[in-house]
Amino acid sequence: MSEPADRRYGPATLPRPRGPLSAAVVEALRRPPHDLPTGLGIDLDPADPITDEDLQLTLFLCYELHYRGWSGVDESWEWQPTLLALRVHCERLFEAALRQLVGTPVVPAAGVAAGLAEVVAADDGPSLAANLQRRADLAQFREFVVHRSLYHLREADPHSWALPRLGGPAKAALVEIQTDEYGNGRLDRMHAELFRRTLDRLGLDVGYAAHLDAVPAVTLATNNLMSLFGLHRRLRGALLGHLAAFEMTSSLPNRRYGNGLRRLGFDEVATRFYDEHVEADAVHEQIAAHDMCGGLVAVEPALAPDVLFGAAAGLALDRLFAAHLLDSWAAGRSSLRPPAPPALPPTVPLVASTPVASPAVVAPPAPTALV
């Protein structure tokens, strides 16, 4: 099969399995499409589907077939019936755990935009952004960027699944947001490309899904949540709610991330991804809550609870994600699965006279050329 030569843009490399189910799926994907064994995964009953490594990786394996795909894997696997049946089984466990985690948000009389504001205001998760701004060392900041690379290297793609499922004001609002995310059609301004430059400055692999093996289940879950919402038309309200909560809560954290990199001595190339989001997301916040979600519910009032569920689920998983990183660092251990990415020096220039808080920084290589 034909595959692109530039590995920055996919397909992804098949990951190491994390249990019997993901091992069976990886092994199957290495062969031509065929029916999976009857009953595969039927006995899967994890105590916590959200943090179960085997379940979350299995979902990610299935979902990635709808994005850039897997290197060396026949693309016909995307719609193989028995693999889809296995995915549905895993999705049911995942969705049930999500609904148990966040409950059923109540839509206030003031409407869905007010409900979104209430969900955001009630979010009391640990301040990962404040830690990265003020205290995190270079190794910890690199870990954070590794976690986020799974999403940011395909930024906006999961939410674009909503476009053909919408019409009217909600669609127009989503197009406005997504146009910014995709750099208004300019490659060098696409948010995924800006993040790739941040990875490069931090001395990290810029390849698509290059760090998949390093991230734990909770990180996979934050990504699988978007794919779950995006690939099911019945969850289109939850998908828009997720995006709205994302836009409503990201401006200040991104300012802090940028300031954290500046504190560590990095230049504007490293911080541009975060600096770009400070202004863009402040504008997107109002569009997402009022025009996009408000527009959707004006046409389809029954979707209002789904919108708030999607927002609450996204924030809840982000809280779990932040707690994992902060708890790991407080205990003096890595938040990544072994082996962690090598401690390479960042590709500078750094800001003059500002030391980088890492003993690993030595004479750096030249910046990687980017298209």
What is the alpha-carbon Rg in Å? 20 Å
Number of strands: 0
Q: Sum up the overall morphology in one term.
A: globular
Q: How many strands, what sense, and barrel or not for the largest sheet?
A: none
Stretches with pLDDT under 50, minimum 5 residues: 352-371
The helix content is 40-55%
Assembly classification: single chain
SS summary, helix count: 14
Q: β content, as a range?
A: under 5%
Give an overview of the whole structure.
The C terminus is likely disordered. It is built from 14 helices and no strands. Helix 6 runs antiparallel to helix 9, helix 8 packs antiparallel against helix 13 and helix 10 packs antiparallel against helix 14.
